[in-house]
Amino acid sequence: MRDPFGKLLLFGATGDLAQRMLLPSLYGLHADALLSPGLTITGTARSSLSDAEYRDFAAKALATHLPEDRKDEARIASFLDRLQYQPLDASKTDGFGALAEKLGDISDGLAIFLSTAPSLFEPTIQGLASAGLAGDNVRIGLEKPLGFDLASSCEINDAVAAVFPENRTFRIDHYLGKETVQNILALRFGNSLFEPVWNATGIDHVQITVSETVGLEGRAGYYDDVGALRDMVQNHILQLLALIAMEPPARFDGTSIRDEKVKVLRSLRPIVGKDAANLTVTGQYTGGASSGKIVAGYAEELEKPSRTETFVAIKAHVDNWRWQGIPFYLRTGKRMTERRSEIVVQFKPVPHSIFAERGGVLQSNTLIIRIQPEEYVRLLVMAKEPGLDREGVRLREVPLNLSLDHEFASTRRRIAYERLLLDLLEGDPTLFVRRDEVEAQWHWIDAIRAGWDAADVKPKPYAAGTWGPSAAAGLTERDGVTWNE
Question: Taking CA atoms, which of 6, 76, 193, 433 is between 20 and 30 Å from 369?
Fold first, then answer.
Protein backbone atom coordinates (compact mmCIF):
# COMPACT_ATOMS: atom_id res chain seq x y z
CA MET A 1 0.00 0.00 0.00
CA ARG A 2 1.22 3.52 -0.78
CA ASP A 3 1.57 5.95 2.11
CA PRO A 4 -1.56 8.15 2.19
CA PHE A 5 -1.22 11.86 2.68
CA GLY A 6 -1.37 13.24 6.20
CA LYS A 7 -4.39 15.54 5.82
CA LEU A 8 -7.62 15.59 3.84
CA LEU A 9 -9.65 18.75 3.19
CA LEU A 10 -13.30 18.38 2.16
CA PHE A 11 -15.08 21.30 0.53
CA GLY A 12 -18.88 21.12 0.60
CA ALA A 13 -18.59 19.20 3.86
CA THR A 14 -22.20 19.81 4.91
CA GLY A 15 -23.76 19.04 1.52
CA ASP A 16 -25.80 16.09 0.33
CA LEU A 17 -22.81 14.38 -1.33
CA ALA A 18 -20.80 14.57 1.89
CA GLN A 19 -23.63 13.10 3.93
CA ARG A 20 -24.60 10.28 1.58
CA MET A 21 -21.23 9.32 0.10
CA LEU A 22 -18.08 11.02 1.37
CA LEU A 23 -18.45 10.61 5.13
CA PRO A 24 -19.69 6.98 4.89
CA SER A 25 -16.85 6.22 2.44
CA LEU A 26 -14.20 7.72 4.66
CA TYR A 27 -15.62 5.88 7.64
CA GLY A 28 -15.46 2.63 5.65
CA LEU A 29 -11.76 3.21 4.92
CA HIS A 30 -11.15 4.10 8.56
CA ALA A 31 -13.00 1.02 9.86
CA ASP A 32 -10.88 -1.21 7.63
CA ALA A 33 -7.65 0.49 8.78
CA LEU A 34 -6.91 1.82 5.28
CA LEU A 35 -6.30 5.40 6.43
CA SER A 36 -2.98 6.28 8.04
CA PRO A 37 -3.37 6.61 11.82
CA GLY A 38 -2.48 10.29 11.85
CA LEU A 39 -4.71 11.37 8.95
CA THR A 40 -6.97 14.29 9.89
CA ILE A 41 -10.10 15.23 7.94
CA THR A 42 -11.05 18.90 7.84
CA GLY A 43 -14.47 19.85 6.53
CA THR A 44 -15.30 23.30 5.23
CA ALA A 45 -18.48 24.99 3.99
CA ARG A 46 -20.42 28.20 4.54
CA SER A 47 -22.26 26.89 7.62
CA SER A 48 -20.94 28.25 10.89
CA LEU A 49 -20.17 25.11 12.91
CA SER A 50 -17.69 24.26 15.64
CA ASP A 51 -15.62 21.07 15.57
CA ALA A 52 -18.02 19.45 18.04
CA GLU A 53 -21.08 20.52 16.05
CA TYR A 54 -19.58 19.12 12.84
CA ARG A 55 -18.81 15.82 14.54
CA ASP A 56 -22.45 15.66 15.64
CA PHE A 57 -23.48 16.44 12.06
CA ALA A 58 -21.23 13.65 10.75
CA ALA A 59 -22.51 11.20 13.36
CA LYS A 60 -26.10 11.81 12.21
CA ALA A 61 -25.07 11.33 8.56
CA LEU A 62 -23.43 8.00 9.41
CA ALA A 63 -26.45 6.90 11.46
CA THR A 64 -28.67 7.62 8.45
CA HIS A 65 -26.57 6.32 5.58
CA LEU A 66 -24.38 3.51 6.93
CA PRO A 67 -25.66 -0.06 6.52
CA GLU A 68 -26.58 -1.58 9.88
CA ASP A 69 -23.86 -4.21 9.68
CA ARG A 70 -21.21 -1.51 9.36
CA LYS A 71 -22.19 0.45 12.44
CA ASP A 72 -19.68 -0.01 15.22
CA GLU A 73 -19.81 2.50 18.07
CA ALA A 74 -16.10 2.32 18.89
CA ARG A 75 -15.00 2.69 15.26
CA ILE A 76 -17.47 5.52 14.64
CA ALA A 77 -16.17 7.34 17.74
CA SER A 78 -12.54 6.97 16.64
CA PHE A 79 -13.47 8.13 13.12
CA LEU A 80 -15.21 11.23 14.47
CA ASP A 81 -12.02 12.05 16.39
CA ARG A 82 -10.33 12.57 13.00
CA LEU A 83 -12.80 15.32 12.05
CA GLN A 84 -12.53 19.07 12.44
CA TYR A 85 -14.32 21.95 10.73
CA GLN A 86 -13.61 25.46 9.49
CA PRO A 87 -16.35 27.78 8.14
CA LEU A 88 -15.44 29.40 4.82
CA ASP A 89 -16.99 31.64 2.21
CA ALA A 90 -14.97 30.40 -0.79
CA SER A 91 -15.85 33.48 -2.83
CA LYS A 92 -13.66 35.62 -0.53
CA THR A 93 -9.91 35.10 -0.44
CA ASP A 94 -9.48 36.48 3.08
CA GLY A 95 -11.04 33.42 4.73
CA PHE A 96 -8.42 30.99 3.44
CA GLY A 97 -5.79 32.11 5.94
CA ALA A 98 -7.95 30.84 8.79
CA LEU A 99 -8.48 27.60 6.89
CA ALA A 100 -4.72 27.13 6.53
CA GLU A 101 -4.28 27.84 10.25
CA LYS A 102 -6.92 25.24 11.07
CA LEU A 103 -5.18 22.65 8.90
CA GLY A 104 -1.83 23.33 10.52
CA ASP A 105 1.34 21.66 9.29
CA ILE A 106 0.82 20.07 5.85
CA SER A 107 4.40 18.94 5.32
CA ASP A 108 3.20 15.30 5.31
CA GLY A 109 0.92 16.14 2.39
CA LEU A 110 -2.58 17.48 1.80
CA ALA A 111 -5.32 16.01 -0.40
CA ILE A 112 -8.24 18.29 -1.28
CA PHE A 113 -11.70 17.16 -2.40
CA LEU A 114 -13.30 20.15 -4.13
CA SER A 115 -17.01 20.05 -4.81
CA THR A 116 -18.36 23.49 -5.63
CA ALA A 117 -20.40 25.50 -8.11
CA PRO A 118 -18.52 26.21 -11.38
CA SER A 119 -18.50 29.94 -10.58
CA LEU A 120 -16.51 29.27 -7.39
CA PHE A 121 -13.72 27.15 -8.88
CA GLU A 122 -11.47 30.09 -9.78
CA PRO A 123 -11.78 32.03 -6.50
CA THR A 124 -11.36 28.80 -4.53
CA ILE A 125 -8.17 27.85 -6.38
CA GLN A 126 -6.82 31.38 -5.94
CA GLY A 127 -7.70 31.29 -2.25
CA LEU A 128 -5.89 27.99 -1.76
CA ALA A 129 -2.79 29.34 -3.51
CA SER A 130 -2.82 32.58 -1.51
CA ALA A 131 -2.92 30.63 1.77
CA GLY A 132 -0.05 28.31 0.86
CA LEU A 133 -2.37 25.32 0.29
CA ALA A 134 -1.24 24.48 -3.25
CA GLY A 135 2.38 23.38 -2.91
CA ASP A 136 4.16 20.40 -4.42
CA ASN A 137 2.79 18.08 -1.73
CA VAL A 138 -0.88 19.01 -2.36
CA ARG A 139 -3.23 17.05 -4.63
CA ILE A 140 -6.69 18.21 -5.61
CA GLY A 141 -9.72 16.12 -6.56
CA LEU A 142 -12.35 17.93 -8.65
CA GLU A 143 -15.98 16.84 -8.48
CA LYS A 144 -18.28 17.67 -11.40
CA PRO A 145 -19.75 19.83 -12.81
CA LEU A 146 -16.56 21.10 -14.42
CA GLY A 147 -18.33 23.68 -16.58
CA PHE A 148 -21.38 23.46 -18.82
CA ASP A 149 -19.62 23.49 -22.22
CA LEU A 150 -16.12 23.32 -23.67
CA ALA A 151 -15.38 27.02 -23.16
CA SER A 152 -16.39 27.09 -19.48
CA SER A 153 -14.65 23.77 -18.86
CA CYS A 154 -11.42 25.15 -20.34
CA GLU A 155 -11.78 28.25 -18.19
CA ILE A 156 -12.04 26.11 -15.03
CA ASN A 157 -9.22 23.82 -16.10
CA ASP A 158 -7.01 26.81 -16.91
CA ALA A 159 -7.68 28.23 -13.45
CA VAL A 160 -6.79 24.91 -11.84
CA ALA A 161 -3.73 24.38 -14.06
CA ALA A 162 -2.34 27.78 -13.11
CA VAL A 163 -1.87 26.42 -9.57
CA PHE A 164 -2.03 22.61 -9.78
CA PRO A 165 -0.18 20.74 -12.57
CA GLU A 166 -1.96 17.87 -14.29
CA ASN A 167 -0.13 15.21 -12.29
CA ARG A 168 -1.62 16.63 -9.08
CA THR A 169 -5.12 17.14 -10.50
CA PHE A 170 -7.66 14.31 -10.10
CA ARG A 171 -10.98 14.81 -11.93
CA ILE A 172 -13.65 12.58 -10.47
CA ASP A 173 -16.27 10.54 -12.31
CA HIS A 174 -17.71 8.30 -9.61
CA TYR A 175 -18.83 5.71 -12.20
CA LEU A 176 -15.16 4.81 -12.66
CA GLY A 177 -15.03 3.77 -9.00
CA LYS A 178 -17.76 1.14 -9.42
CA GLU A 179 -16.53 -2.45 -9.29
CA THR A 180 -18.50 -3.55 -12.35
CA VAL A 181 -17.09 -0.69 -14.42
CA GLN A 182 -13.56 -1.69 -13.45
CA ASN A 183 -14.51 -5.27 -14.32
CA ILE A 184 -14.94 -4.18 -17.95
CA LEU A 185 -11.15 -4.03 -18.14
CA ALA A 186 -10.80 -7.44 -16.49
CA LEU A 187 -13.43 -8.94 -18.78
CA ARG A 188 -11.89 -7.57 -21.97
CA PHE A 189 -8.19 -7.82 -21.27
CA GLY A 190 -8.03 -10.71 -18.81
CA ASN A 191 -9.80 -13.26 -21.02
CA SER A 192 -8.74 -14.47 -24.46
CA LEU A 193 -12.36 -15.36 -25.21
CA PHE A 194 -13.59 -11.85 -26.05
CA GLU A 195 -10.84 -9.78 -27.61
CA PRO A 196 -10.70 -11.63 -30.99
CA VAL A 197 -14.39 -10.80 -31.64
CA TRP A 198 -14.47 -7.41 -29.86
CA ASN A 199 -14.64 -5.42 -33.09
CA ALA A 200 -16.73 -4.67 -36.16
CA THR A 201 -16.32 -8.25 -37.39
CA GLY A 202 -17.88 -9.83 -34.32
CA ILE A 203 -20.18 -7.18 -32.82
CA ASP A 204 -23.43 -5.91 -34.32
CA HIS A 205 -24.06 -3.00 -31.96
CA VAL A 206 -23.63 -1.75 -28.39
CA GLN A 207 -26.26 -0.24 -26.10
CA ILE A 208 -25.52 1.84 -23.00
CA THR A 209 -28.42 2.73 -20.71
CA VAL A 210 -28.36 4.82 -17.54
CA SER A 211 -31.97 5.21 -16.38
CA GLU A 212 -33.30 6.77 -13.20
CA THR A 213 -36.70 6.64 -11.51
CA VAL A 214 -36.17 9.91 -9.60
CA GLY A 215 -37.22 13.36 -10.74
CA LEU A 216 -35.66 16.65 -9.74
CA GLU A 217 -35.16 15.64 -6.09
CA GLY A 218 -34.23 19.14 -4.95
CA ARG A 219 -31.88 19.78 -7.91
CA ALA A 220 -34.24 22.07 -9.86
CA GLY A 221 -31.94 25.09 -9.85
CA TYR A 222 -29.02 23.07 -11.17
CA TYR A 223 -30.72 20.59 -13.47
CA ASP A 224 -32.82 22.99 -15.53
CA ASP A 225 -29.65 24.77 -16.66
CA VAL A 226 -27.95 21.49 -17.54
CA GLY A 227 -30.27 18.74 -18.83
CA ALA A 228 -29.66 15.06 -19.42
CA LEU A 229 -27.04 15.44 -22.17
CA ARG A 230 -24.67 17.47 -20.00
CA ASP A 231 -25.57 15.81 -16.71
CA MET A 232 -25.11 12.16 -17.71
CA VAL A 233 -23.93 11.66 -21.30
CA GLN A 234 -20.97 14.06 -21.20
CA ASN A 235 -19.34 12.21 -18.34
CA HIS A 236 -20.69 8.82 -17.18
CA ILE A 237 -21.97 7.44 -20.49
CA LEU A 238 -19.02 8.60 -22.59
CA GLN A 239 -16.61 7.14 -20.04
CA LEU A 240 -18.41 3.78 -20.27
CA LEU A 241 -18.28 3.97 -24.07
CA ALA A 242 -14.54 4.69 -23.93
CA LEU A 243 -13.88 1.65 -21.73
CA ILE A 244 -15.89 -0.61 -24.03
CA ALA A 245 -14.33 0.72 -27.24
CA MET A 246 -10.71 1.43 -26.24
CA GLU A 247 -7.74 -0.45 -27.67
CA PRO A 248 -5.80 -2.74 -25.29
CA PRO A 249 -3.48 -0.54 -23.20
CA ALA A 250 0.16 -1.52 -22.89
CA ARG A 251 -0.12 -1.74 -19.10
CA PHE A 252 -2.54 -1.11 -16.25
CA ASP A 253 -1.63 2.41 -15.24
CA GLY A 254 -3.11 5.88 -15.42
CA THR A 255 -1.18 7.03 -18.47
CA SER A 256 -1.73 3.95 -20.65
CA ILE A 257 -5.44 3.56 -19.90
CA ARG A 258 -6.26 7.24 -20.28
CA ASP A 259 -4.24 7.47 -23.50
CA GLU A 260 -6.45 4.79 -25.04
CA LYS A 261 -9.69 6.30 -23.73
CA VAL A 262 -8.97 9.71 -25.20
CA LYS A 263 -8.27 8.13 -28.61
CA VAL A 264 -11.82 6.74 -28.57
CA LEU A 265 -13.37 10.04 -27.49
CA ARG A 266 -11.54 11.87 -30.29
CA SER A 267 -12.75 9.23 -32.77
CA LEU A 268 -16.43 9.83 -32.04
CA ARG A 269 -18.11 10.84 -35.26
CA PRO A 270 -19.34 14.44 -34.86
CA ILE A 271 -23.11 14.80 -34.79
CA VAL A 272 -23.60 18.18 -36.41
CA GLY A 273 -26.26 20.15 -38.26
CA LYS A 274 -29.35 18.17 -39.25
CA ASP A 275 -27.76 14.96 -37.95
CA ALA A 276 -28.39 16.25 -34.43
CA ALA A 277 -32.12 15.98 -35.07
CA ASN A 278 -31.89 12.67 -36.97
CA LEU A 279 -29.48 10.78 -34.71
CA THR A 280 -30.78 11.94 -31.32
CA VAL A 281 -34.08 11.97 -29.46
CA THR A 282 -34.86 14.27 -26.56
CA GLY A 283 -37.72 14.01 -24.11
CA GLN A 284 -39.22 15.56 -20.99
CA TYR A 285 -41.30 13.59 -18.52
CA THR A 286 -44.92 14.42 -17.82
CA GLY A 287 -47.07 13.21 -14.94
CA GLY A 288 -47.49 9.48 -14.45
CA ALA A 289 -46.83 6.57 -12.12
CA SER A 290 -43.30 5.92 -10.90
CA SER A 291 -42.28 3.26 -8.36
CA GLY A 292 -45.93 2.72 -7.49
CA LYS A 293 -46.66 6.40 -6.84
CA ILE A 294 -48.40 9.12 -8.82
CA VAL A 295 -45.83 11.78 -9.65
CA ALA A 296 -45.92 15.21 -11.25
CA GLY A 297 -44.36 16.13 -14.56
CA TYR A 298 -41.10 18.02 -14.91
CA ALA A 299 -42.72 21.39 -15.64
CA GLU A 300 -45.01 20.96 -12.64
CA GLU A 301 -42.06 20.16 -10.37
CA LEU A 302 -40.15 23.10 -11.80
CA GLU A 303 -43.29 25.30 -11.55
CA LYS A 304 -42.67 26.82 -14.97
CA PRO A 305 -42.46 25.74 -18.62
CA SER A 306 -39.07 24.49 -19.75
CA ARG A 307 -37.34 23.11 -22.83
CA THR A 308 -34.72 21.25 -20.82
CA GLU A 309 -34.42 17.59 -21.78
CA THR A 310 -34.80 14.97 -19.02
CA PHE A 311 -34.22 12.17 -21.54
CA VAL A 312 -31.82 11.77 -24.43
CA ALA A 313 -31.08 8.89 -26.81
CA ILE A 314 -28.23 9.01 -29.31
CA LYS A 315 -26.98 6.84 -32.17
CA ALA A 316 -23.20 7.29 -32.07
CA HIS A 317 -20.28 5.90 -34.07
CA VAL A 318 -16.59 5.50 -33.33
CA ASP A 319 -14.74 6.09 -36.57
CA ASN A 320 -11.71 3.85 -36.39
CA TRP A 321 -10.70 0.45 -37.76
CA ARG A 322 -12.03 -1.55 -34.83
CA TRP A 323 -15.53 -0.05 -34.81
CA GLN A 324 -16.17 1.18 -38.34
CA GLY A 325 -19.90 1.06 -39.09
CA ILE A 326 -20.95 -0.28 -35.67
CA PRO A 327 -23.59 1.84 -33.91
CA PHE A 328 -23.45 2.68 -30.21
CA TYR A 329 -26.92 3.44 -28.90
CA LEU A 330 -26.83 5.64 -25.81
CA ARG A 331 -29.74 6.68 -23.62
CA THR A 332 -30.40 8.19 -20.24
CA GLY A 333 -33.40 9.69 -18.55
CA LYS A 334 -35.23 10.56 -15.37
CA ARG A 335 -38.58 9.12 -14.21
CA MET A 336 -38.11 6.01 -16.30
CA THR A 337 -39.51 2.52 -15.71
CA GLU A 338 -36.68 1.35 -13.49
CA ARG A 339 -33.30 2.38 -12.16
CA ARG A 340 -30.69 0.67 -14.32
CA SER A 341 -27.16 1.21 -15.56
CA GLU A 342 -25.98 -1.38 -18.07
CA ILE A 343 -24.01 -2.06 -21.20
CA VAL A 344 -25.37 -4.51 -23.77
CA VAL A 345 -22.97 -5.90 -26.37
CA GLN A 346 -24.88 -7.60 -29.18
CA PHE A 347 -22.74 -10.01 -31.20
CA LYS A 348 -23.37 -10.80 -34.84
CA PRO A 349 -25.19 -14.04 -35.78
CA VAL A 350 -23.32 -17.16 -36.79
CA PRO A 351 -22.56 -17.07 -40.55
CA HIS A 352 -24.55 -20.23 -41.26
CA SER A 353 -27.08 -22.13 -39.15
CA ILE A 354 -26.89 -25.90 -39.42
CA PHE A 355 -30.10 -26.16 -37.39
CA ALA A 356 -32.47 -24.26 -39.71
CA GLU A 357 -33.63 -27.31 -41.68
CA ARG A 358 -34.59 -29.07 -38.45
CA GLY A 359 -36.54 -26.16 -37.04
CA GLY A 360 -33.84 -24.75 -34.80
CA VAL A 361 -33.97 -20.97 -34.38
CA LEU A 362 -30.78 -19.21 -33.39
CA GLN A 363 -30.46 -15.96 -31.48
CA SER A 364 -27.26 -13.93 -31.59
CA ASN A 365 -25.15 -13.98 -28.45
CA THR A 366 -25.60 -11.06 -26.08
CA LEU A 367 -23.31 -9.86 -23.31
CA ILE A 368 -24.99 -7.80 -20.57
CA ILE A 369 -22.84 -5.89 -18.10
CA ARG A 370 -25.13 -4.64 -15.32
CA ILE A 371 -23.62 -1.90 -13.19
CA GLN A 372 -26.56 -1.05 -10.94
CA PRO A 373 -28.69 -1.80 -9.02
CA GLU A 374 -27.47 -5.42 -9.32
CA GLU A 375 -23.90 -6.09 -10.38
CA TYR A 376 -23.41 -8.92 -12.83
CA VAL A 377 -22.00 -9.99 -16.17
CA ARG A 378 -24.34 -12.22 -18.17
CA LEU A 379 -23.60 -13.91 -21.49
CA LEU A 380 -26.64 -15.24 -23.36
CA VAL A 381 -25.76 -18.33 -25.42
CA MET A 382 -27.71 -20.92 -27.38
CA ALA A 383 -28.26 -24.42 -25.97
CA LYS A 384 -30.31 -27.42 -27.08
CA GLU A 385 -33.35 -28.29 -25.02
CA PRO A 386 -33.27 -31.88 -23.67
CA GLY A 387 -35.35 -34.35 -25.71
CA LEU A 388 -35.38 -36.88 -28.56
CA ASP A 389 -35.90 -34.18 -31.21
CA ARG A 390 -38.61 -36.13 -33.04
CA GLU A 391 -40.31 -32.87 -34.05
CA GLY A 392 -37.14 -30.91 -34.74
CA VAL A 393 -34.27 -29.47 -32.78
CA ARG A 394 -35.37 -27.09 -30.06
CA LEU A 395 -32.86 -24.44 -29.15
CA ARG A 396 -33.14 -22.00 -26.29
CA GLU A 397 -31.22 -18.95 -25.16
CA VAL A 398 -29.71 -19.56 -21.71
CA PRO A 399 -27.57 -17.29 -19.52
CA LEU A 400 -24.04 -17.89 -18.35
CA ASN A 401 -24.22 -15.66 -15.31
CA LEU A 402 -21.44 -14.13 -13.23
CA SER A 403 -23.12 -12.44 -10.29
CA LEU A 404 -20.59 -10.37 -8.40
CA ASP A 405 -22.85 -10.39 -5.34
CA HIS A 406 -22.84 -14.22 -5.39
CA GLU A 407 -19.31 -15.03 -6.53
CA PHE A 408 -17.76 -12.51 -4.16
CA ALA A 409 -20.31 -12.83 -1.38
CA SER A 410 -17.59 -12.87 1.27
CA THR A 411 -16.14 -9.59 0.00
CA ARG A 412 -17.84 -6.39 1.16
CA ARG A 413 -19.24 -4.24 -1.63
CA ARG A 414 -17.73 -0.79 -1.39
CA ILE A 415 -19.11 2.64 -2.25
CA ALA A 416 -17.39 3.94 -5.40
CA TYR A 417 -16.10 6.96 -3.49
CA GLU A 418 -14.17 4.71 -1.10
CA ARG A 419 -11.91 3.63 -3.94
CA LEU A 420 -11.65 7.11 -5.41
CA LEU A 421 -10.89 8.85 -2.11
CA LEU A 422 -8.23 6.27 -1.27
CA ASP A 423 -6.69 6.64 -4.75
CA LEU A 424 -6.67 10.43 -4.29
CA LEU A 425 -4.88 10.06 -0.96
CA GLU A 426 -2.40 7.59 -2.43
CA GLY A 427 -1.90 9.47 -5.71
CA ASP A 428 -3.10 6.79 -8.15
CA PRO A 429 -4.61 8.56 -11.21
CA THR A 430 -5.84 5.45 -13.07
CA LEU A 431 -9.56 5.91 -12.31
CA PHE A 432 -9.61 9.68 -12.72
CA VAL A 433 -10.30 11.69 -15.86
CA ARG A 434 -7.56 13.62 -17.62
CA ARG A 435 -8.07 17.09 -19.06
CA ASP A 436 -7.81 15.99 -22.69
CA GLU A 437 -10.57 13.43 -22.05
CA VAL A 438 -12.88 16.07 -20.59
CA GLU A 439 -12.28 18.42 -23.50
CA ALA A 440 -12.86 15.69 -26.10
CA GLN A 441 -16.15 14.85 -24.39
CA TRP A 442 -17.30 18.47 -24.35
CA HIS A 443 -16.29 18.98 -27.98
CA TRP A 444 -18.64 16.17 -29.03
CA ILE A 445 -21.47 17.26 -26.72
CA ASP A 446 -21.31 20.93 -27.75
CA ALA A 447 -21.77 20.00 -31.42
CA ILE A 448 -24.97 18.12 -30.58
CA ARG A 449 -26.37 21.04 -28.58
CA ALA A 450 -25.51 23.44 -31.41
CA GLY A 451 -27.41 21.16 -33.79
CA TRP A 452 -30.42 21.13 -31.49
CA ASP A 453 -30.41 24.92 -31.35
CA ALA A 454 -30.10 25.25 -35.13
CA ALA A 455 -32.96 22.79 -35.75
CA ASP A 456 -35.05 24.18 -32.86
CA VAL A 457 -35.32 20.71 -31.33
CA LYS A 458 -37.92 20.53 -28.55
CA PRO A 459 -38.07 17.61 -26.09
CA LYS A 460 -40.90 15.16 -26.75
CA PRO A 461 -43.22 14.36 -23.83
CA TYR A 462 -43.12 10.94 -22.18
CA ALA A 463 -45.13 9.72 -19.23
CA ALA A 464 -43.26 9.18 -15.99
CA GLY A 465 -42.68 5.47 -15.40
CA THR A 466 -42.05 4.65 -19.07
CA TRP A 467 -38.89 4.08 -21.13
CA GLY A 468 -38.99 7.54 -22.69
CA PRO A 469 -40.65 8.95 -25.84
CA SER A 470 -41.70 6.52 -28.57
CA ALA A 471 -39.25 8.17 -30.96
CA ALA A 472 -36.42 6.61 -28.92
CA ALA A 473 -37.66 3.17 -29.94
CA GLY A 474 -37.78 4.35 -33.54
CA LEU A 475 -34.13 5.44 -33.33
CA THR A 476 -33.08 1.79 -32.99
CA GLU A 477 -35.93 0.00 -34.74
CA ARG A 478 -35.17 1.59 -38.10
CA ASP A 479 -31.90 -0.36 -37.85
CA GLY A 480 -33.71 -3.56 -36.84
CA VAL A 481 -32.55 -3.17 -33.21
CA THR A 482 -34.63 -3.20 -30.02
CA TRP A 483 -33.60 -1.61 -26.73
CA ASN A 484 -32.88 -4.14 -24.01
CA GLU A 485 -35.79 -3.65 -21.62
Answer: 433
